[in-house]
Design brief:
Elements: H1 11-29, H2 42-61, H3 68-91, H4 100-120, H5 126-146, H6 153-180
Helix pairs in contact: 1-2, 1-3, 1-6, 2-3, 3-4, 4-5, 5-6
Length: 201
C-alpha cells in the first residue's frame, strides 16, 4: 500500500447530509408533522449541516468547486445558522423568534446563487440539472412566502421535498458508480461539454 494517502470522494456523503435536512424541514412545513415537533429537527439541522461543511471542505481539498461551494453555503446558511436560531428561541427563552423577513432574505440570497449553480450543472448531468431547477424554484417560492407573498410556500416546500428525494438517488449513483467504475445507476448525460473537452488535438 502506498504511503501517499489521497482524499476520497465525499460528494455522496455531503449530498445525503443535505437531504437529511431538507426532507424533515419539508415534512414539517407541509404540516405532515405537528409544529411542536420543530425542536426535534434541530439535531438534523446541526449534524446534517456539519456533514455538508466537512464534505464541502474535502471536495475543495480534492480540487472541486461545483459541489463544494453549495455544500458549505447550505451547511452554514440553511442548516447550522437556523439551528442555532431555533435553539436560542426555544431553549434559551429569547423574547421573539427570528422575523420572517430575515428568513425570506436568506432564502432569496441562496436562491440567487443557485441560479449560477443551475447553469453550471449543465456540465454535469441532465438529471442533476432538473433537480437543481426544482431546488431553485422552491427556494424562490419559500423566500417570497416569508416576505408576505401568500399561497406559494406550500408548492415551494413540495418542490424542495422532490429535490431532496431525487438527490438521494444522485448520492447513491455517485457512490455506486465510483465504486464499480461504471454507471450502475444512470445520471443522464451532460447537457454541454466542459470547455476543456471541446478542444481537440
Amino acid at each position: 500500500m502506498s504511503k501517499d494517502v489521497s482524499w476520497g470522494n465525499a460528494q455522496a456523503c455531503g449530498i445525503l447530509g443535505l437531504c437529511t435536512v431538507v426532507i424533515p424541514l419539508s415534512v414539517l412545513n407541509l404540516r405532515w408533522i405537528p409544529p411542536e415537533s420543530a425542536p426535534l429537527i434541530i439535531p438534523w439541522l446541526l449534524f446534517g449541516g456539519l456533514v455538508q461543511v466537512i464534505c464541502g471542505l474535502i471536495d475543495f481539498r480534492r480540487g472541486g468547486t461545483l459541489l463544494a461551494t453549495p455544500l458549505l453555503l447550505f451547511g452554514f446558511m440553511l442548516c447550522i445558522t437556523p439551528a442555532f436560531g431555533v435553539m436560542v428561541t426555544h431553549w434559551l427563552g429569547a423574547p421573539a423568534p427570528v422575523p420572517p423577513f430575515l428568513n425570506g432574505v436568506g432564502f432569496l440570497v441562496v436562491a440567487a446563487y443557485v441560479l449560477a449553480l443551475l447553469y453550471a450543472t449543465r456540465l454535469v448531468s441532465s438529471t442533476v440539472f432538473i433537480l437543481v431547477l426544482l431546488l431553485d424554484i422552491g427556494l424562490w417560492l419559500v423566500g417570497l412566502t416569508y416576505l408576505g407573498v401568500v399561497g406559494v410556500g406550500v408548492f415551494g416546500w413540495y418542490l424542495l421535498l422532490i429535490f431532496a428525494l431525487g438527490m438521494v438517488y444522485v448520492a447513491c449513483a455517485i457512490y455506486l458508480n465510483e465504486l464499480f467504475g461504471r454507471p450502475v445507476l444512470p445520471l443522464g448525460a451532460p447537457m454541454f461539454k466542459p470547455p476543456s473537452a471541446s478542444v481537440s488535438g
